[in-house]
Amino acid sequence: MINDTYRHKGLRKKLVETIREKGIQDERILQAIEHVPRHLFMDSSFLEFAYEDKPFPIGNGQTISQPYTVAFQTELLDIKKGDKILEIGTGSGYQACILMEMGARVFTIERQKALYLKSKSNLKELGYKPKLQSYGDGYKGLPQWSPFDKIIVTAGAPYIPQALIDQLKPGGILVIPVGTETQLMKRIIKSTSGELTEEDHGLFRFVPLLNDKTMEA
Ligand code: SAH
Does residue 217 register a pLDDT over 50? Predict the structure, then answer.
């Protein structure tokens, strides 16, 4: 049974106000955050932390991103209804659900099997329907489903994978935190003629985008 009460809804309204004060202005993003029950993407014993503007562990050494960071990356993506989005790093599935609330068609990849399986069953239970939830390596993207209008990476990438640039439509946007200790939030815009423009949007701290060498077992 889905346990989303008036108390949870009240806490979400407060969270939305916090994120608005931090500078997020797009009402569609704020509405999505108000709708998606973040506490149901975390273990139930951590309920009291669900609506603080903080990242939180979701198991397997991973975290659900801070709501402000989710909102910030979403704002950079400039989501339009019907956009075809690739997300690297499904994690809890929370970011994917924010994008779906905004009318995006979401394809998402997770590298860790336990998280892939957990998020898959959780999204199903909550009634969210991504176009595809894939267990695989985000460095490679999903060439068979490309091109995408927008691509979002939700783990810290040591570099910008060329495969992701290649899978972006002309006119498309890639949002990716790049760096090891801390990450610079980059927005790459591919023009209709295929030229790339790169913007920097401040420092963040993400868990690393794992490759075969940094993957444990
Ligand atoms: N978007 C998530 C936050 C995920 S944290 C949410 O809303 O909860 C980053 C996620 O990226 C982790 O789940 C991690 O396992 C995953 N990840 C790390 N390296 C990856 C890779 N190479 N490909 C796909 N996913 C990866």
Answer: no
pTM of this structure: 0.96
Calculate what percentage of the chain has a pLDDT beyond 90: 88
Q: State residue 143's pLDDT score.
A: 98
Contact status, residue 46 vs residue 56, Cβ threshold 8 Å: yes
**C-alpha 6 to ligand 1 mean position (Å):** 31
Provide the residue count of the chain. 217
Q: What are the φ/ψ torsions at residue 161 (nearest 5 degrees)?
A: -65, 130
The strand pair at 105-110 and 84-88 is best described as: parallel
State the amino acid at position 31 in one-letter form: Q
Pocket of ligand 1 (CB under 6 A): 62-65, 88-89, 91-92, 94-95, 109-112, 115, 137-139, 154-155, 207, 209-210
Q: Which residue is associated with the tokens 């998606």? A: 36
Give the active site residues. Answer: 65
Separation between Cα atoms, residue 24 and residue 201, nearest integer Å: 14
CATH superfamily of 6-216: Vaccinia Virus protein VP39 (3.40.50.150)
Tokens (6 digits) for 188: 């790459």
Query: Domain residue spans in the chain?
Result: 6-216
Cα 193 to ligand 1 centroid, rounded to whole Å: 31
